[in-house]
């Protein structure tokens, strides 16, 4: 069964708006990573956050991690049409990485 | 650097046939893994390796074999293909931190497999 679950399953916004995606997981983790997948392509790494970190930034991306609630969020600010993709969280524990089913983000120009 | 390469890009098999999906990386990563992705779903871990000569099962290992004779290569073998193995297969590699912590995983472009 999947460890991570993303919410919402699908999100549609206008260009320039912010997009927030959430990830919940069940067991303790070492790291949590967010990936982007454009249709039919391989996954591209966005951010890695370790279990002892609470927040990380990378350009227009902000990731938070709350280990007490076993949840993480990915915020994309000032979205662009090129951000249209599926976004996955992956929880890492002792050499195994478990992916959720993803959030499909559509950014309308 | 080529990163992670996979061959073939697309393959059609008949039920019962066997084949090997190739994966290679040129980043000297200790960790390599195979995932399958079914339509509308996330990736599920098939097998992984933390170094040459060391492999272990993931979430969905049945019907697949792996070996890791070199750091660079991690082939995935389908023993007797079934229609349920129709999927997109991704190979990935990564550095390992202390305590088998995964660092950034780099993914190959995928192999689309259709089993008739």
Q: Secondary structure elements and their pairing?
A:
The complex is a heterodimer of chains A (109) and B (116).
Chain A: E1 5-7, E2 10-14, E3 19-24, E4 31-37, E5 43-50, E6 55-58, E7 61-66, E8 71-76, E9 85-93, E10 96-99, E11 103-108
Parallel strand pairs in A: 2-11
Antiparallel strand pairs in A: 1-3, 3-8, 4-5, 4-9, 6-7, 7-8, 9-10, 9-11
Chain B: E1 4-7, E2 10-13, E3 19-25, E4 31-37, E5 43-51, E6 54-57, E7 64-66, E8 76-78, E9 87-94, E10 106-107, E11 111-115
Parallel strand pairs in B: 2-11
Antiparallel strand pairs in B: 1-3, 3-8, 4-5, 4-9, 5-6, 7-8, 9-10, 9-11
Describe the structure.
The complex is a heterodimer of chains A (109) and B (116). Chain A has 109 residues and is mostly beta strands. Chain A has strands spanning 5-7, 10-14, 19-24, 31-37, 43-50, 55-58, 61-66, 71-76, 85-93, 96-99, 103-108. In chain A, the strands form two sheets. In chain A, strands 2, 4, 5, 9, 10 and 11 form a six-stranded mixed sheet that branches. Chain B is an all-beta fold and 116 residues long. Chain B is built from no helices and eleven strands. The radius of gyration of chain B is 13 Å and the shape is globular. The mean pLDDT of chain B is 94.
Features:
heterodimer, A: 109 residues, mainly beta, five-stranded antiparallel beta sheet, 11 strands, globular, B: 116 residues, seven-stranded mixed beta sheet, four-stranded antiparallel beta sheet, 48% strand
How many DSSP H or I helices of chain A?
0
How many β-strands of chain A, per DSSP? 11
Radius of gyration of chain A: 13 Å
Q: SSE order of chain A in H/E notation?
A: EEEEEEEEEEE
Secondary structure category of chain B: mainly beta
Q: What proportion of the residues of chain A form beta strands (DSSP E)?
A: over 45%
What is the average per-residue confidence, as pLDDT of chain A, rounded to a whole number?
92
Helicity level of chain A: under 10%
